[in-house]
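Subject: for your reference before the review

Hello V.,

The reviewers asked for a structural picture of the protein, and I figured it would be easier to keep everything in one thread rather than splitting it across files. Below is the amino acid sequence we used in the manuscript, unchanged from the supplementary table.
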Amino acid sequence: MRLVTGLLVAWMGIFSSATAAAAQPKRPADSPRKTVRVAAVVTVFRRNSHAEMIAGRLIEGYNLDGKPPLPSLKLASLYVDQTPASDLSRKLAAKHKFPIFKTVEGALTLGTGKLAVDGVLLVAEHGSYGLSKTGQRLYPKRRLFEAVFKVFEKSKRSVPVFTDKHLSDNWNDAKWIGDTAKRLKVPLMAGSSVPTYRRQPAVDVDRKRRLAGVVAVGYGGTESYGFHALEMLQSLAERRRGNETGVVSVRFVSGDDVWKAAGKLYDDALLKAALNASQKRRWADKPLRESVRKPVLFSIRYADGLRGSMFMLSGTATEFTAAWRYVGKDAKPIATVFELQDERPYSHFTTMLKGIEGMLHTGRPTWPAERTLLTTGVLHEGFLSQSAGGKIRRTPHLAIRYTSRWNWRQPEK
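And here is what came back from the structure prediction:
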């Protein structure tokens, strides 16, 4: 067990040292930058897919309207794993004159046989893929990463890679991706758009304070949107005094057991504060037992004693909200809404893309890859706990220590 933990800490060093040494990159508007050629490797490219929301902005601008401002990134090539009738890639390629390749290798080499781009966007979200035994979507992230890494090995050099959302549907593949990125010295960044966008009120965890508890509330699918809620929670937790020390256990709780766990597995006052932060709740005047038919709780215990609670409360929650409390007798809940733009152009992807730009220009992750490694592991362990009837999952492999230098700031309207 010590060997596993030691190896895990060792491969994370490449990210920790780079992240700790780097100041937060400037936004593209702050100074002129060279154009970075990017290969996009995606599962599907249809309207409102994550591929369009991220890679599409490279050709249609931050507002997806074909007008400036545009990122300082050029879409040099595209690989699309599935092309249903709703596919937009062929139409956009004809309009904007970029090539689509039949293989990942072709997209990264531009047909030359050697790496010919400055960065990679890997967006494996959406598409027709099956489910794992635990009910997680089997997006081909490892397969696509294997193809990307193969080009790096053949070319004997690497470029920065951003991958959307969690690293994989399972821990083994996520760790393999991290291990291989370290071996090949690949600057790696991943994650959710939710932590990057607007908050009301504009608050964040004080790095000088210790946290007693943190709660995140989300809605929608347990995996697809539950990941966003976990990243939201982790983007707060990682700032606490002492920095991140890892997770020791995860438990999945559902149904009436969620309400019975109040005061035992979570701080009920924090849950109420997080819910009340939203002005868009459905059935806010009804008891939660009546408004939320299928509540879900991921109960997370950190190595330093912090208690994290991620709730999925479809039926009343319509926004991502969070609340936390510092250590101290008189510490009151602090709560905020992590806003999203729920219509085009979905500007929360713009704020995420600006963070990606910083990484592609500097080779240093704007926010830590360890955050997404940890949330990937917690998400998978939650599903394993669900499969085991809600039993506690001990997680020594999630002893992930890191220090985040990323500072959120309120985007301009």
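For the response letter, the relevant points are probably these. The longest helix spans residues 2-21. Residues 224 and 311 are 14 Å apart (CA to CA).

Happy to draft the paragraph if you're swamped.

O.
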